[in-house]
Amino acid sequence: MYRFEDYDLIIDARSEREYAVDHIPGAINLPVVSNEEYAEVGTLHRSDKMRAYLIGVSYSLKNISRHLDTVIAARPRHGRVLVYCFRGGKRSRLWFDARRAQ
Fold first, then answer.
1. What sign does the CA torsion over 93, 95, 96, 100 have?
2. Residues 60, 78: contact at Cβ < 8 Å?
3. Is-contact 87 16, C-beta < 8 A?
4. Could you tell me the end-to-end alpha-carbon distance of the chain, in angstroms, rounded to an integer?
């Protein structure tokens, strides 16, 4: 069984608002979407699921790219990383795919 201490980096992929409410001790917040983007995509999802998905993916790729350049690039390449989000795992999956591509 893993413990949080077994990881070199713990990434919370949720929005800033979600991170502020609660997070794993020692986790850093590298959100896939910002608070504003999260609200925009959620609101649009009610009326146009496909458009919301496309906008969400666009925001996610831009944000993850920025985090890779500014935070992840300074970290050891082969460190053990834990990434988490909240519900369905879509946000953490995007991080997993990006980290694997490094």
1. positive
2. no
3. no
4. 27
Domains for the chain: give ranges and CATH numbers: 4-101 (3.40.250.10)
What would the two tokens of residue 88 be? 């369905």
- For 2-30, write each residue's pLDDT tens digit: 788 899 999 999 999 999 999 999 999 99
| Lookup: tokens for 57 | 């993916």
Amino acid at 16: E
CA 77-86-32 angle, 5° bins? 50
- Number of neighbouring beta carbons within 10 Å of residue 95: 23
Identity at 91, one-letter amino acid code: R
pTM of the model: 0.82
- Give the separation between CA 87 and CA 82, rounded to whole angstroms: 16
